[in-house]
Design goal:
With about 350 residues, this protein is α/β, with parallel strands linked by helices. The protein folds into two domains: about 210 residues, Alpha-Beta Complex (Spore Coat Polysaccharide Biosynthesis Protein SpsA, Chain A); about 110 residues, no CATH class. It contains 14 helices and nine strands. Strands 1, 2, 3, 4, 5, 6, 7, 8 and 9 form a nine-stranded mixed sheet that branches. Strand 2, helix 2 and strand 3 form a beta-alpha-beta unit.
Length: about 350
Amino acid sequence: MPKISVIMPVYNCEQFVHESIASILNQTFSDFEFIIIDDGSKDQTLQIIKQFNDNRIVLIENVNNLGIVECLNYGISISECELIARMDGDDIAHPNRFELQYDLFQNYSDLILCGSSIAVINEEERIDFPLLHDEIKVELLNSCCIAHPTVMFKKHFKNGEIISYNKNFDACEDYELWSRLIQEGRFMNHSKSLLQYRKHSNQISFKKHLNQKNNSLLVKMKLFQLLTTKEISEKFFSINEILKKKDVGAELDYLNWIFKQIQFLITENKKLQIFDSLHFSVFLDNHLKKVIKAIFISSSVFNYKKKSYLVDYNKKHPMIFSKIDYFKSLLKCVLCYNKKSTLSIDL
């Protein structure tokens, strides 16, 4: 039995698929099966795949296009190995990728998922992610800090159930899976860039940007609920909804609520130990800064009440705003003056 099952769904990627497959077949670690699922491609993708003569390749041909989640879940279900490696048909794997990741699984018995940094093809850009479990877990509250085509993960949850992607989280099925897997064992990102990542207009992140944005927010709130209630989680991430109301009172009430919740969340986390205290405090501080900037920079409503608060806050936390942003916001508050009133709030 091979040691790794590589799963690569492909759909209409004739330009890149040959190079992607070759980068897997030429790995320094060669003991794997390579499950390639052609998801009803209409171009020459399938013909290009069939040009490869390698007994490690298991080719699945879908007559109709089922979508990436169906393909991934089917690939996992038929895989022979406990270790699953993901690959996309438009990226290029580093020759040592499997060797380096497999070694990590041998060294850390509780490791359940390993990703890596990525280099962007045709651009002088490298994207790095948090390396260790505690910082990855907190960073998932901000963004998907595990690059999907770089991952190697175990096939089963602790209870023996086969891992599967959730089809209800269109365009961020990976992010949703990480939010569940992070409770099952150790996460790591390798410090080396183990994948050359290709950006192009046919990617899901381009085609389904709005779905991805909305579902990503749902994942963040879901992960946050490990620590608190659904109601608090939803309100904590709802600054855009508050701004839509165009109500100064609502915005400043929300800011007051955020201050109180941060203290509550720090206390709760110390009791429950869901997130690493240091990294979680940094996350809360950064979230507060986002809210502050949204209310005083992105907002479309200003008045004297907001000016009073802005001045007071800037005195106590002068590093939040650049000088230009501060004076722009101050000018808006003065120009939009409608009522001399103040807001008493504990900073």
